[in-house]
């Protein structure tokens, strides 16, 4: 039987697995489904439609599933909601909003860590094993690849894709796509590939060399973007190179670069 503190408020259609724990002063407004082993520590707000999987831990003052911060959205419209997987940790004052469009719910995968005051915007998709550190702001319609990391007080612009294994340093912002296993340490600036992350992800020595080669081809050989992609197509039989090709060719915003880009006559320098 679920363990629900007497001060908690459950309103509407709320479905709790047998060993769910709901701490003091939590407020759950259905439709909400919460899976086995999940623990809402206290003072947590969950608004439906939201589905939360197994073994998640939600710390005080986190708010899950409320209406998007979008001027055209009617907060009374439930929309496609929010879907959360298993084994996630949501620290104090984390927020995530339900979807604005009818293309599917805001989605959070498995085993992710969202530190204090981090935020995931509406219609975003967060993969597995992602870490958002304190104060990270992820805007709406963002895709965060598996094992990506965003350092403290950094921002990801709406509609940006952050590839798997990519890492954004603290006090950083990106408005362009970040390819898999690349680093960003300034505004849209990638100084190097994230080789430490690649090793931790279990990539082979050959795959890590492919990452090095792709980075050099894109940024260090003086090639135009089209020439660099032609060179990559010649190695497209290698799965990781093919992954980069697909990521870059499908990018609608463009990808970050190794040097600051001029903006209206000025240069955005790395942080």
List the helices and strands and how they pair.
Elements: E1 3-4, E2 9-11, E3 14-16, E4 21-22, E5 27-29, E6 32-34, E7 39-40, E8 45-47, E9 50-52, E10 57-58, E11 63-66, E12 82-84, E13 89-90, E14 95-97, E15 106-108, E16 113-114, E17 119-120, E18 125-126, E19 131-132, E20 137-138, E21 143-144, E22 149-150, E23 155-156, E24 161-162, E25 167-168, E26 173-174, E27 183-184, H1 195-200, H2 205-219, H3 225-233, H4 239-249, E28 262-263, E29 266-267
What tags apply to this protein structure?
single chain; 271 residues; alpha/beta; UDP N-Acetylglucosamine Acyltransferase, domain 1; Udp N-acetylglucosamine O-acyltransferase, Domain 2; 2 domains; ten-stranded parallel sheet; nine-stranded parallel sheet; 4 helices; 29 strands; elongated; disordered C terminus
Summarize the main sheet: 10 strands, parallel
Beta content comes to: 25-35%
Shape: elongated
CATH-defined topology of the largest domain:
UDP N-Acetylglucosamine Acyltransferase, domain 1
Span between termini: 51 Å
Mean pLDDT: 95
Helix content: 10-25%
Major sheet: arrangement of strands: 1-4-7-10-13-16-19-22-25-27
Number of helices: 4
* CATH-scheme architecture of the largest domain: 3 Solenoid
CATH H-level superfamily of the largest domain: Hexapeptide repeat proteins
Low-confidence stretches: 266-271
Report the structural category. Answer: alpha/beta
* Cα-based radius of gyration, to the nearest Å: 20 Å
| Number of domain units | 2
What's the CATH first level of the largest domain? Mainly Beta
């Amino acid at each position: 039987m679920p363990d629900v503190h007497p001060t908690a408020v459950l309103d509407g259609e709320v479905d709790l697995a047998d060993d769910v724990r709901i701490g003091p002063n939590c407020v759950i407004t259905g439709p909400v489904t919460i899976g086995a082993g999940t623990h809402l520590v206290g003072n947590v707000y969950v608004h439906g439609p939201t589905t939360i999987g197994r073994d998640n831990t939600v710390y005080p003052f986190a708010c899950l599933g409320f209406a998007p911060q979008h001027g055209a959205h009617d907060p009374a419209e439930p929309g496609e909601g929010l879907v959360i997987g298993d084994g996630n940790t949501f620290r104090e004052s984390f927020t995530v909003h339900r979807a604005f469009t009818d293309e599917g719910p805001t989605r959070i995968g498995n085993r992710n860590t969202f530190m204090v005051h981090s935020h995931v915007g509406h219609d975003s998709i967060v993969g597995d094993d992602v870490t958002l550190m304190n104060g990270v702001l992820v805007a709406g319609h963002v895709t965060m690849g598996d094992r990506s990391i965003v350092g403290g007080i950094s921002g990801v612009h709406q509609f940006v894709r952050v590839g798997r294994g990519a890492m954004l340093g603290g006090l950083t912002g990106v408005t362009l796509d970040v390819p898999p296993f690349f680093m960003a340490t300034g505004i849209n600036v990638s100084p190097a590939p994230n080789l430490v992350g690649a090793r931790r992800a279990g990539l082979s020595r050959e795959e890590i060399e492919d990452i090095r080669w792709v980075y050099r081809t894109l940024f260090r050989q003086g090639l135009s973007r089209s020439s660099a992609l032609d060179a990559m197509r010649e190695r497209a039989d290698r799965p990781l190179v093919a992954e980069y090709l697909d990521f870059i060719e499908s990018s609608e915003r463009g990808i970050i670069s190794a040097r600051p880009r001029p903006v209206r006559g000025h240069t955005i320098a790395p942080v």
